[in-house]
Write a structure and sequence with these properties.
There is one protein chain. By secondary structure, this protein is an alpha+beta fold. It folds into 2 domains: about 160 residues, Fructose-1,6-Bisphosphatase, Chain A, domain 1 (2-Layer Sandwich), CATH 3.30.540.10; about 140 residues, D-Maltodextrin-Binding Protein, domain 2 (3-Layer(aba) Sandwich), CATH 3.40.190. The strands form 2 sheets. It has a 7-stranded mixed sheet with strand order 1-2-3-4-5-6-7, sandwiched between helices. The longest helix is centred in the N-terminal third of the chain and has 26 residues.
Length: about 300
Amino acid sequence: MKESDYKAFYDLVVPRLFEVSEYQKLMCGKIENLGKAAQSDVTQNDIHGSLTYLDQFTQDYLLIPIYQRWPDLVPLVEEDTGLKRANINNISEYSLIMDPIDGTAFYIRGDSDYSILLGLMHKGEMVIALICYPEDDLIIASIKDQGAWIEKKDGSIEQLAKINLVKMDDKRIACHYRFVKEPYATLASKLKKVGCQLTSNDNGFGTNATGILRIARGENCAFIAPHISLHDFAVPALVIQELGGVFRLFEYDGLNDLTSWSKPLKDYGSPSPKGANPRYRVIIADSEKTIDTIVTSLTT
């Protein structure tokens, strides 16, 4: 893999994303009902087990052609499939980032706010982002230094406007659902005390991609998460960066240091697929000023 391959990667993956999204649409909201039709005492674990199979299918359906073309990529992907394990010892400057179904609770209920997140990372920085919304038949995409756009299933493309051209709601913040629950709820209350309104996955969006992309539409000035996996946010974060927004990673010291939001990290680092799933503290926003304001509110 090299920079000149980015367009080839994009062209290979986009049709495959649209293909697998059709399978996801067929099962959206039906996993629970199908299970109970077959067995009246089906449990929540059974339902999530069925969902895991669909996650795994989606992941490997996308990975197979990628690994045929670029066999050395490091698989920083969510599901523990045979294809991931077969490549777990890969050594490369490039890593694949994937969440096959982000917004699973919404997906099980049959709501439309779920997505497939797929991206490519080079030396700790995202360089390709693909967010597929199956129910809308579209992909929101970005390649580093090339902006961001929407590609529809019919092949039409619409460039996205820069964030500085959008009127921003500077008091509304989207957040990962953990941020409004203990032990992080005390942090959320600090933002509320200075007049911020918080919308989380639980009451406003399913996939983190939607919460983050609200910044591009001016509906939120920021997205904040205190403890989140790379595959949950790094892909839409690149889209926001390409539209003129910013993001800041913070050193994570565990639950005993919840107010440590003042030690920025340079990049995502070089996590290994053989290690524990790394978690990040992150703020994605329209500007550095917004991030500084949020950090000040959290740490005072």
